[in-house]
Amino acid sequence: MCFSLAWSAWLFLAVDAEPSSMINAQGWAVMLSSITAVLALVGFCLYQVLSLPPVEDEHLKGPLEIDTRDTD
Amino acid sequence: MQRERERWGSRIGVILAVAGSAVGLGNFLRFPGQAAQNGGGAFMLPYFISLLVLGIPLCWAEWTMGRYGGTRGFNSAPGIYATVCRRPGARYFGAIALLLPLVIYMYYVLIEAWCLGYALNYISGDLVVGTGGAIDRVIEQVQDSAEPPLSDSEAMSAAFGSYFERLVGADRHGALLEQDRRNWMYVLAAVFVFNFTLIYRGVTKGIESFCKVAMPLMIVLALIVLARVLTLGTPNPELPERSLLGGLGFMWNPDGRALANPQTWLAASGQIFFSLSVGFGIIVNYASYLSEKDDVVLSGLTSSSMNEFFEVCLGGLITLPAAFIFLGAAAGSQGTFGLGFVALPNVFAQMWGGQVFGFLWFFMLFVAAITSSVSMLQPVIAFLEEGFNLKRRDAAVVLGMISAIGCGVVVYLSEGLVALDTLDFWVGSVLIFILALIQSLMYGWIFGIDRGEAEAHQGAHFRIPRFVQWMLKYVVPVYLFAILVAFCFNNLPSKDVRSFVVKGGDVAVFETDLDQGTLPEQLVTEFEANKKSLPGAPVVIRGEGTARWLVRDAEGSLKYTLAGTRQGMRVEEHIAGYVEKIGGNPAAMASVIFILVILTALLMLIRVAGLRWQQEGRFNFGDANGKEGQS
After folding, report:
1. pTM of the predicted protein model
2. What b/e readout covers B93-128, taking b as 16+ CB neighbours within 10 angstroms?
């Protein structure tokens, strides 16, 4: 939350006088932070997905599922 | 008789299929344009907030409801909605969830054929300048007909525009059916057949197998093009600002003022919304092929993040930086089609190795489009199968005929792409908002967030924070409703936008000419100077009771309003809203009637299917968990 507030305040200050100028420090920061955030998220998710056992194995090792209906 | 349930073959398979459905032309062409027009890097703040508040929670809700319906025997939206709401009548909401992918497919397959056609034309050399191909002939024609003569770069830009208009038949209705444009129809037919071959093969052998190959292939192709863009340097030393760093600056330099503009927030929310494919009726269908033990939380997040990878990391680095390097800031103001099919071919024409990279780029767009279009067919196939007990082959034939008729309508009504634009607005934009709103209310207020949370966490590999459920109940519907209202406000009514003022001109002198129905020479020059195009044969009529004149085109559509003021003659451009477009254009009216006909037919089919399900006892929702309704 604090990060996003600081980021938005900083962006407010970054009033670009020449839209067609070379990439500036804020541009680099936004670009790199956006790409890093997305790469970190997709990397984390894919790592989690690919490191899990196949679905069939999970079910075999899972707890026994016997519905005794004693909670109905 | 219950048929055997189809299942996804693997966890990564369903993730790639959902991500493939979401990744499309919007990631590479719409996102960069939206960012550049709405504050550059500053756009990313509302973009990521919308992703967290709107996109990912809605995805989770759709995945959860889809799997819930699927484990109770339904794969199509009508059955899933009835099960989730525990009311047979709720199945009628499913008509929108079937209409959306079906109608979008009817025009999306055309766009897909454009991509493949462009890729093939790069191979054949037709789009390579200087080889005597088709584009060279168009450049010659443009230069011959231009008065005054155009520079080489202007002629090339105009030629690529003209080439695209001819390809899509934008010059007149029925143009694509003419003899000399038949090649495009063969490409379209091939794409159509390929889609139905995949869908006929089924969820696992067709969609999943294809996406397992297509998604990595897209990444490889995009990375090759990205490597080329990042090594472009400064192709023209006379224009040092048109360099890679200039292109990146054009896309990413933040303009903080944009954050104070509500339009930026609306654009960011809209982009997230369209990009993630929420509210399309596709995720609920795909998730219904999961078992009760399958994870939906990690899978939903992974597919959303993969979509973001394509959009931010690839789309954000390739499209606009490349276009800026060769075309300058004008590249940012183009629409999706203008950027994709006019500006970028122009870029490849000027780039070393453009033929190869042009082919790779358009082939990648084609693959991205296929993974999306095939996902649009599956919800309707599923409905035909379970609603009428059709075999997959029969369902594919029926759907093939329906979608071919719809596609034929879009192909025939090609003038100005009116039919495509009308279907895209009313179905591909407005109805998506409405369906997403319905689904968020269904999840938060009917299914219930407690039940939703418990259902989502069955088989989940991590927990969704509790506040997300509260957001789904209270924040998401309000947020969606606000976006829908703002979107309609921006697009439905017509507007007169002040363009320029002809200062120093004698209004009284203009009045004489205007009253005689002709535009004064000075005004025509000012239109050209301000880059405003006048209709071919403008009709000037005096407005009632005031010093205002209306400039209409030959068909009678209002284009500009001229008003005499103290400062001079004020020119306002008339931007027709979508309501006016329906009344003013028979093709738009026909497209809307076409949508209504399909919607009515779907409602009737859902009624018949629902009666059948009732007779079979499949609407026996039983206890609060709906277990008795399980097949």
Report:
1. 0.89
2. bbbbbbbbbbbbbbbbbbbbbbbbbbbbbbeebbbb
